[in-house]
Amino acid sequence: MLSVPQQPPAVGHVGSGPPTYDAEPTALPPADPDELDDLVADTVLDGARYGTSTLRAVSLRGDSARYRGEPRRDALLTARFGAGEQALVLVAMATGARATPGAHRAAAEACRWIARAVGRSHDRLADDIRGARRGDLKSGLHRLTDRSLGRLRASAAEQGVEPEEYTASLRCLLLPADPECRTRVFFGVGAGGLFRLRDGEWQDIEPRVAEATGEPVVGFGSPPHETPEGDRLTMDLGITTPPSPYEPAPRPPRPPFRFRASIARPGDTLLLCTGGMAEPLRGEPELAEYLTTRWSEGEPPGLAAFLADSQVRVKGYADDRTAAAVWEA
Description:
Blueprint: E1 13-14, E2 43-50, E3 53-60, H1 63-68, E4 74-81, E5 88-96, H2 103-120, H3 122-130, H4 134-159, E6 168-176, E7 183-189, E8 193-198, E9 201-204, H5 209-212, E10 257-263, E11 269-273, H6 275-283, H7 285-295, H8 303-310, E12 313-314, E13 321-328
Helix pairs in contact: 2-4, 6-7
């Protein structure tokens, strides 16, 4: 008689002990009767199946925010542009700046701006993915990301707040619907994680800054080596320049752009997540082992099962969690 491998039962937490906070939401965020569109649900769950890939995505409020009655700072957007095998699926996730009142709005706005930009260029992007034109993809997505985050800086100026108070990390995944194309494209800015579960082992494939920045884009990341007129720019030798009373103080450098285009193998599981999920996955081996046993055998989990797996708690990690996982048939 043929035996079918069984997944272990779902658990509430892993690690040295139970987390400090309750497992379920405690307090709702305060609501303004004139700004009800500003409310953010505790949990968002989505999924789809295109080509050879099955997508599951979730964004849930962290234990700390649930206890304090604060809104979820993470935002999640999933969208399909185009139809049939020419379609392109986008997963965008963002995290607003900590301890700022508009963090959830900044995260949602970042996801909407990058979705608009990708949607308007989806035909070209899908063609570049199928054609394996990684250089074009990298430079094009770099520009789209910079423009989208530039919109946040404009919004900050309109609201009269500092750009650092109305900003967000932004991490995205592009999945072509064409079953003949197994290229998966990650791009974004800011903290988080990109992992691959292959042959029963987790691989941390987050692009390093040195291998991800590529050619500089004016207005984002590294400065150009010369001006448009051809004048060479000198290197920063660490010499302190006295501040000028006529110029604003220089702002801290922006986080680098990250990009990776990889070929998926049958049986792979690709996981993109914000820092609230990446940190416990890197810091608590039991969480990685648990997800390995849950996701290595059988069919991809349903939405409810994926939610249960994603919210397994770890003591010391209480931030929002947003994750998108892709199972390859």
